[in-house]
Amino acid sequence: MADKTVIKTLRIPQSLADSLVLKAREEHKDFSTVARECLARGLGEQGGIDMSVALADAIGKFPGTGESQAEVMKRYGRSRHH
């Protein structure tokens, strides 16, 4: 029998939320399912996602582009170094 679910509010960094959304889209799952799997994996429960593997490509990258923030910002405005 599955555990009873509860609703909790959790504040997470925008970059982590973006990574979870991207992971959910890639796996054709909803956000909550992916978040639960990641939490379960982080707590050592079976069936979760290894966050170090799941987020390895996303860390430091702009969502959807694969570019770093510095690479994206080069296209906008003037350079900080004159």
In short:
With about 80 residues, this protein is an all-alpha fold. It has helices spanning about 15-25, 30-40, 50-55, 70-75.
Query: Helical amount among residues, as a percent range?
Result: 40-55%
Tally of separate domains: 1
Number of E-state strands: 0
Low-confidence stretches: none
**Quick check: average pLDDT?**
76
Largest sheet: none
Structural class by helix and strand composition: mainly alpha
Rg value = 16 Å
Report the end-to-end length measured between terminal Cα atoms.
Answer: 64 Å
Shape, per Cα inertia axes: elongated
N-to-C SSE string, H for helix and E for strand? HHHH
The number of helical runs is 4
| Percent strand | under 5%
Structure description:
The protein is mainly alpha-helical. The chain has one domain. The protein is 43% helix and 0% strand. It contains four helices and no strands. The longest helix is centred in the N-terminal third of the chain and has 14 residues, at 14-27. It is elongated. The mean pLDDT is 76.
